[in-house]
């Protein structure tokens, strides 16, 4: 992509309405535009990151054996009357009437609808386990939409629902989600800590929230800081192996990590003082086992291996896809702008031409662009007729992890400069070597 032909409406000034850094940088880098309180357009750069995040979410869900589908944003009120939530949901639900006077709503979540799909098509344990998920826009008429995409009214969520024949199988689905979420966040360059959340009506250890540590987070968190060193890394996990999956979950949930809702001062005091930390976190996901709450209310029953009809065991599991952009920026920035982790960057690398119009510099940039494209790595090439300082400032703000700087002086020696956005360290190397290096960095992305 050439910047001269792109749509990247960068703002020079800090927008007054933005209170936190991620919101400020998303507006300044031309990623989003507010259209109404808590409702945003995704401009091209923002959309690229949003798409990248969705891709990772899909890949990790499919890896865990979960199956994508797509449910509509608009739902009939009657479905929600079956579960009793049409009245319970209150003011957060956006209620709409169509021209026939039928009551509809813009879905804030999809438990009822997925249960309706399930009961229409599945009636035997032989078709289980089954986990269906989608990535779809939600609407919640939040009292205080704020911090940009962090707390929107319209926001993109991955929500998945498991259907299992018994409690043990459903808890395995819960654990599978935990592991797949850990891998998802790690691929985005995030440390998201599973924290015990307030238990539902069933009680017990049935729900975890995933929190990214950040000063600007809305939740207060209490944790043993050794939990931040835990990594899934590249290890293979067999998602069908209940003991193995449960083992990984135990590894990540044994150290103390809780939000203020579940905090236990007595247990917290037992952590060695040097590891005892209080901070703030951003909730980027939540997993929940709720058993037969919806299946009983809505008549989603299956026949088990003894021929008995039983309500199906369920859970629901969400990832805040659009919120993740904010969380990633909160965790990865400096005073010049965003620093995208390689996993989610909108472009893998930027090319800065220091002397647009210089025949050698223009040709070198074009050939770098071509070589990168041939490797499936689309660069953002700043080919505008601008001062070098302005080009660097834009690249730093936009936050591509790598920049190749091309100028007549370097080219005279056969080199370009490769700079890491994170460390600021530059090295000179031939254009070919620069392309190879970028390809190595993104291998297996
Ligand atoms: N208003 C919102 N704006 C952006 N993301 C949201 C919003 N509400 C929830 N999310 C994201 O969706 C995920 C799943 O939602 P859920 O746990 O049902 O929401 P909540 O925690 O508000 O009850 C949350 O972990 C969060 O990351
Ligand atoms: Mg939640």
TrEMBL record:
GO cellular component: cytosol
Catalysis: reaction(s): tRNA(Pro) + L-proline + ATP = L-prolyl-tRNA(Pro) + AMP + diphosphate
GO biological process: prolyl-tRNA aminoacylation
UniProt superkingdom: Bacteria
Family matches, as InterPro entries: aa-tRNA-synt_IIb, aa-tRNA-synth_II, aa-tRNA-synth_II/BPL/LPL, Anticodon-bd, Anticodon-bd_dom_sf, Pro-tRNA-ligase_IIa, Pro-tRNA_synthetase, Prolyl-tRNA_ligase_IIa_type2
Pfam families, alphabetized: HGTP_anticodon, tRNA-synt_2b
GO molecular function: ATP binding; proline-tRNA ligase activity
EC number per UniProt: 6.1.1.15
Localization of this protein: Cytoplasm
Domain Aminoacyl-transfer RNA synthetases class-II family profile: 38-341
Entry keyword set: Aminoacyl-tRNA synthetase, ATP-binding, Cytoplasm, Ligase, Nucleotide-binding, Protein biosynthesis
NCBIfam families linked to this entry: PRK12325.1
Family as reported in the entry's similarity comment: Belongs to the class-II aminoacyl-tRNA synthetase family. ProS type 2 subfamily.
PANTHER family found in the cross-reference section: MITOCHONDRIAL RIBOSOME PROTEIN L39/PROLYL-TRNA LIGASE FAMILY MEMBER (PTHR42753), PROLINE--TRNA LIGASE (PTHR42753:SF2)
HAMAP family per UniProt: Pro_tRNA_synth_type2
Known partners and oligomeric status: Homodimer.
Task of the protein: Catalyzes the attachment of proline to tRNA(Pro) in a two-step reaction: proline is first activated by ATP to form Pro-AMP and then transferred to the acceptor end of tRNA(Pro).
Name the record gives this protein: Proline--tRNA ligase
Organism: Stagnihabitans tardus
Gene field: proS
């Amino acid at each position: 992509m050439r910047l001269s032909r792109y749509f990247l409406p960068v703002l020079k000034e800090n927008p007054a309405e933005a209170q936190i850094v991620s919101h400020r940088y998303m507006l300044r880098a031309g990623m989003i535009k507010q259209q109404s309180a808590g409702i945003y357009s995704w401009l091209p750069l923002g959309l690229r990151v949003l798409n990248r995040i969705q891709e990772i979410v899909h890949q990790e869900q499919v890896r865990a054996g979960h199956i994508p589908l797509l449910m509509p944003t608009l739902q009939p009120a009657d479905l929600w009357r079956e579960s009793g939530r049409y009245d319970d949901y209150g003011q957060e639900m956006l209620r709409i009437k169509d021209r026939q006077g039928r009551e509809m709503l813009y879905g804030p979540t999809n438990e009822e609808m997925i249960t309706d799909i399930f009961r229409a098509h599945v009636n035997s344990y032989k078709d289980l386990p089954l986990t269906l998920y989608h990535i779809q826009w939600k609407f919640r008429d939040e009292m205080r939409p704020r911090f940009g995409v962090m707390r929107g009214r319209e926001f993109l969520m991955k929500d998945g629902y498991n259907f299992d024949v018994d409690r043990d199988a459903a808890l395995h689905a819960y654990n599978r989600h935990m592991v797949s979420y850990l891998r998802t966040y790690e691929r985005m360059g995030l440390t998201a800590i599973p924290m015990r959340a307030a238990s539902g009506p069933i009680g017990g250890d049935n729900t975890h929230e995933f929190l990214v540590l950040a000063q600007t987070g809305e939740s207060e968190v209490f944790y043993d800081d050794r939990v931040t060193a835990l990594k899934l890394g590249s290890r293979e996990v067999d998602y069908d192996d209940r003991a193995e999956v449960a083992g990984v979950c135990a590894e990540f949930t044994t150290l103390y990590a809780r939000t203020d809702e579940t905090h236990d001062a007595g247990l917290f005091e037992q952590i060695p003082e040097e590891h005892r930390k209080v901070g703030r976190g951003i909730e980027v996901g939540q997993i929940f086992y709720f058993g037969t709450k919806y299946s009983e209310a809505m008549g989603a029953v299956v026949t088990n291996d003894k021929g008995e009809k039983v309500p199906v065991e369920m859970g629901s599991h969400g990832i805040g896809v659009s919120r993740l952009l904010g969380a990633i920026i909160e965790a990865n920035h400096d005073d010049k702008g965003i620093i995208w982790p390689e996993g989610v960057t909108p472009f893998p690398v930027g090319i800065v031409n220091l002397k647009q119009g210089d025949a050698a510099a223009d040709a070198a940039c074009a050939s770098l662009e071509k070589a990168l494209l041939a490797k499936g790595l689309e660069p953002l090439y700043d080919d505008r007729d601008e001062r070098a300082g302005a080009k660097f400032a834009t690249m730093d703000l936009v936050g591509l992890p790598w920049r190749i700087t091309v100028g007549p002086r370097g080219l005279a020696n056969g080199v370009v400069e490769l700079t890491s956005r994170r460390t600021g360290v530059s090295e000179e190397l031939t254009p070919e070597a620069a392309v190879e290096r970028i390809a190595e960095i993104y291998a297996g992305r």
